Amino acid sequence: MLSLTIQQKWINRKLVNRDTMFLAICLSRSTLAWNNSDECQYIKQSKVPTMHFQPSLPRLPIPKLEDTANRYLNAQRPILNNDQLNTTISYVNKFLSDEGLMLNKALLEENKKNKHTSYITEPWFDMYLKDRKPLPINYNPFLVFTQESSDNNQLVKITNLIVSSLRFMKSLRAGILEPEVYHLNPKKSDTELFRTITNLVPSSLSWYAAYLFKAFPLDMSQYHNLFNSTRLPELGKDRIYQNTSEKHIVVSRRGHFYAFNVLDEAGYIHPPKEIAACLKSILDDNRPINIHSVGVLTASERDFWCRARYHLIDIGNRDVLKKIDSALFMVNLDDDVMQDNKSKLIRNFLHSDAINRWFDKSFSIICTKDGYAGINFEHSWGDGVAVLRYFQDVKKDITEKPWFHPHDIENLKANNSDIHRIEFVLDTKAKGIIAEESKKYKQRTQNLAVDYLIIEGFGKNECKSFNVSPDAIMQLAFQLAFYMQEGHMVPTYESCSTAAFKHGRTETIRPVTLETKAVCSALTDKNSKLSTAEIKNMIVACSKAHSNLTKNAAMGQGFDRHLFALKNLCQRLNKPLPDIFKDKSYEYINHNILSTSTLSSSAVMAGGFGPVVDDGYGIGYMIQDKLLGSIVTSYQDKRSASDYIKNLDEAFKTINKVMLHK
Ligand SMILES: *[C@@H]1O[C@H](CO)[C@@H](O)[C@H](O)[C@H]1NC(C)=O
Ligand SMILES: *[C@@H]1O[C@H](CO)[C@@H](O)[C@H](O)[C@H]1NC(C)=O
Ligand SMILES: *[C@@H]1O[C@H](CO)[C@@H](O)[C@H](O)[C@H]1NC(C)=O
Ligand SMILES: *[C@@H]1O[C@H](CO)[C@@H](O)[C@H](O)[C@H]1NC(C)=O
Ligand SMILES: *[C@@H]1O[C@H](CO)[C@@H](O)[C@H](O)[C@H]1NC(C)=O
User: Class assignment of domain 65-117+449-659?
Assistant: First the structure.
């Protein structure tokens, strides 16, 4: 989304220097030939081992039941009418004095027995793995790398991305990938001294040492699922399959799948030129598009895909499926060019026509003909923090240390015996299923509307000068845009990482508050008697309330996961469901019309996901110093993403005008 425009300016400027820069890179690189040295094989060698802080990470707290109840009611207040609220209050009170006490006690006891993990881990995995909805659009998010002028060659780009991903993977496996740490004050703690000291403290105490520096080590358990993992469809509940013994990746192009080894027998990364040679011969393969690509089935409803997969195994595809499932990761080489078509870019990375995809893979690197690259990832195994770390490290590595250069293409010696084409055996039934699913997917994606908005000149810096949180302003704008459209507040979800805790995942921030409701109402009411100065103060109050909610959620102090875990436990214990969960208002607040999530990083050009409910909006957004950006998706027959974007534009302008008031 966003930086497309500024990127363009940057490209124009950069073009001038391109040749000199290129020469400089070649010179610095030419002295270092690829070999089995650590410098080639690892992305960066951390002094502090990857899992150093893991044993002493604090456990995700289970909030006090009364706090959860209060937070829940506070979130309901701005979206319910008085009668509904009265009913909900009575259910909550009943829960607090009766079933809730018993359930919470059982949850606390269970949690005490599972000190190695968090109370949310299992229910959260189950939530993902049991859902039968198709993965693309519903679950798999995408991220696109920022693009530089010199990297528009598909072969060069993908070779470097693969090499850097392998360097990252090997560092992770060797335990020398730097542990992820949230620095409250980076100047003080993102230092060599910090690393030296915390490294000296044994793992069982190291978290406390970091804490003294006001630095918070994050959970690293999800990172291992990035590689050699895939989600397999099973009836009722999928499972995650992993296999560390394989040495290959799988590359798809035009719906054909190919495998080749990228690690040798001893586990060293093959020379980039050899990897490039394999990729080149795949790119040179002029087979037409495979309209019966099995990849399409990974975009189906999960039970359906499971049955189709059993059939594929029955007719002789066990080994080819295993080849894909056990690959280190997946690469999709697209024939399409994106040029400047941003909607096309978003669609290509979010869903495409599924022919050249395998949505079950933990992540796939996608690279277009004109070198736009990014990833589409399966969500059950992990969350944004782990994915973003991989994404940023790889972006940095291909920028600072590309191992393969355009001039290397000339001398590539392709060795076709290294490449294994994965050929499925398909009978009429299988072909029929694929054709049918292909058609259904096309209809579904045609019904998906995609739009985006870039606000330049209003970003983190300006928000800071107004003394408001940029995230609060973003969230207020999302609500105001909807309010302009429909005149009321709707259930809204903002995801917040709880990776500061062992096996933490996410908590929900409920950004709709009485404060934001008051502002939405004031800014849309033509007869409002409030002065601009008063509204400005109200926006500052929104920001304060939002920052409070955010801080609490990051500390595990929300209400969503706690209630979710209690309901889940109740079901596991086969107890009758308490009224608080049968309440229509509980269902309502969990029908998130606005589903929002942000991943802000200079490595990300665009990122987004689909709506989580049929009549909702999926909003991926980004906050930069001088720019705000959002990508919005919706189902066309229910809601219009482009109408929403128009209102969002208006909402930003309105808020900005109020904030500029002196
Ligand atoms: C329901 O809400 C109204 C306010 O709208 C309040 O006056 C009334 O006391 C409430 N009733 C109950 C039973 O809490
Ligand atoms: C690969 O899979 C294995 C399970 O066989 C797992 O233990 C390992 O951590 C995974 N990831 C990496 C990066 O090796
Ligand atoms: C992993 O792959 C190896 C080599 O193909 C195979 O021998 C082994 O059984 C696999 N492990 C699992 C858990 O599937
Ligand atoms: C191609 O690969 C085969 C088997 O991996 C090997 O025996 C052969 O020497 C290779 N040829 C070239 C030209 O590298
Ligand atoms: C912030 O949260 C605390 C504790 O949850 C609460 O007591 C306080 O009133 C909140 N402040 C604002 C401005 O919402």
Answer: alpha beta
